[in-house]
Amino acid sequence: MAERMLQFVRIQQQMPEKREAAARRKDFREIYAGFEPAQAAEQASRCSQCGVPFCQVHCPLNNNIPDWLKLTAENRLEEAYEVAAATNTFPEICGRVCPQDRLCEGHCVIEKGFDSVTIGAIEKYIVDTAWQRGWVKPPLPRRELPQSVGIVGAGPAGLAAAERLRLRGYQVHVYDRYDRVGGLMIYGIPNFKLEKEVVLRRWQQFEAAGIRFHLRTEVGRDISLAELRARHDAVFLATGVYKARDVVLPGAGLRGVHAALDYLTAANRHGLGDHVPAYADGTLHAGGRHVVVIGGGDTAMDCVRTAVRQGAASVTCLYRRDRANMPGSMREVHNAEEEGVRFVWLAAPEAFEGVDGRLTAVRAQRMHLGLPDATGRAAVEPIAGSSFLQRADMAIKALGFDPEDLPTLFGEPGLEVTRWGTLKVDHRSMMTSLPGVFAGGDIVRGASLVVWAIRDGRDAAEQIDAYLQEQARPAVAAE
Ligand code: FAD
Ligand code: SF4
Ligand code: SF4
């Protein structure tokens, strides 16, 4: 092993510089700077090159982390980029948005008492450097194949599949109802976690490689799934989950009560230069408002932090469990607190109160945690007589997402779904109940992560390739 490694005893963990909260509150730029070259090499050298690298085991893409850390420590960055890109379609995006504390870094076992290697930040550094130096190339195939694949959804799952299939030479057509490529990476995740330029430059490369994008095309409305199946040799469904989970509460129809994704999409569109009437007229803008966000996941964290940046008068997050039981990443909660968000733990909304049809407060009640339920999570129980009013002229519901009724949407009653409404697939072949129609990403897993969507897209591409090769094989002549 190179002498450069195993430096964790001598060198302390250091994250890239994080901008001061006061400055962060004023704009939507990413909050972390990149590593400087010497700092990246130094941080990479802390890795102890474990025989069984648990970081890799717990990365959904099984990235070859120890190898690219060693190459970074040795300043062999182009090789590090090749290794990082071999298993991940968007390593620079994962380096920014993966909840590393729950994945790779959370399982880094340098040695007890030492902080983990800063894997995500180094992955971002390697690939941002590759972009700067022109090493990232369009996924051009060596030869063209006649078969075509229709991909529905230009989120990370659809794009990862598109890249792999195009590299193999297939004619790849991606259909999306939106006007831009990226799915939730473009219209969901805010700029301060993922600057949109990072997504847009990938889109350009995919177009340069001959991947055909059919935007503003909603499958089930503008074109049917049956038509797509007739047009292409295989279809991959990667449409994500968008139906906002809701609580039926009195006053939900008041002006000022919004769904999280409407709010975040408006902010992202504005950031991309679009004219968004509901943003411009203040309906979906938190400036000067007392904002209450309901929920404790990453979407809720994105809403509170967006509201802070829009100049809200106050931002409060109501969550029915406590901090330790939050589904969101602790790093994001910490960032939100630094930026001035107030958390009210163990509080659930009861009603939206208003005057003249306009929201004025959220009535909530205190909860306490009971015994764990069947899933192992502590049950929440209301405390009688504990209601209180939280001033609000804007309330944002961030309670998660479910799939639409897909068989109806796609006009395919034969398309089987699970009891959660997600698409049922054969877990080995990733094929749905319709022959030649594959699926992956959130539409199969339920709301998940970018990195899992990439994994599904790449796996589906393998399966689609195998299926198409099988289809192309000449049938054995009947005796
Ligand atoms: P999506 O990204 O949802 O893409 C699906 C695409 O399909 C969309 O472009 C949509 O327009 C299109 N589509 C849908 N229906 C149709 C149709 N009928 N016809 C044509 N096109 C259609 N994950 C992380 O790892 N880190 C984070 O920090 C993070 N933050 C998040 C913040 C928010 C606010 C949200 C909502 C999610 C976040 N996620 C995060 C989750 C992550 O974005 C998703 O898990 C991931 O994008 C799923 O990828 P996908 O390709 O399956 O679907
Ligand atoms: Fe970690 Fe995500 Fe990168 Fe895997 S893809 S190494 S989990 S940051
Ligand atoms: Fe290096 Fe940590 Fe992975 Fe071990 S677990 S190989 S120390 S990054």
What does this structure look like?
By secondary structure, this protein is α/β, with parallel strands linked by helices. The protein has three domains: 2-132, Alpha-helical ferredoxin (Fumarate Reductase Iron-sulfur Protein, Chain B, domain 2, Orthogonal Bundle), CATH 1.10.1060; 148-241 and 403-478, FAD/NAD(P)-binding domain (3-Layer(bba) Sandwich), CATH 3.50.50.60; 246-401, 3-Layer(bba) Sandwich (FAD/NAD(P)-binding domain), CATH 3.50.50.60. Helices cover 34% and strands 16% of the residues. The protein has helices at 21-24, 37-44, 54-57, 65-73, 77-87, 91-97, 119-132, 156-167, 184-187, 196-208, 225-231, 260-271, 277-280, 298-309, 330-338, 406-409, 442-445, 450-472; strands spanning 148-152, 171-175, 212-214, 234-237, 243-244, 257-259, 290-294, 314-318, 342-344, 347-355, 358-372, 378-382, 388-391, 394-397, 401-402, 437-439. The strands form four sheets. Strands 3-2-1-4-16 form a five-stranded parallel sheet, with helices on both faces. Strands 6-14-7-8-9 form a five-stranded parallel sheet. Strand 1, helix 8 and strand 2 (171-175) form a beta-alpha-beta unit. Flavin-adenine dinucleotide binds at residues 97-98, 152-158, 175-178, 183-185, 188-189, 193, 218-220, 238-240, 264, 298-299, 302, 441-443, 448-451, 453.
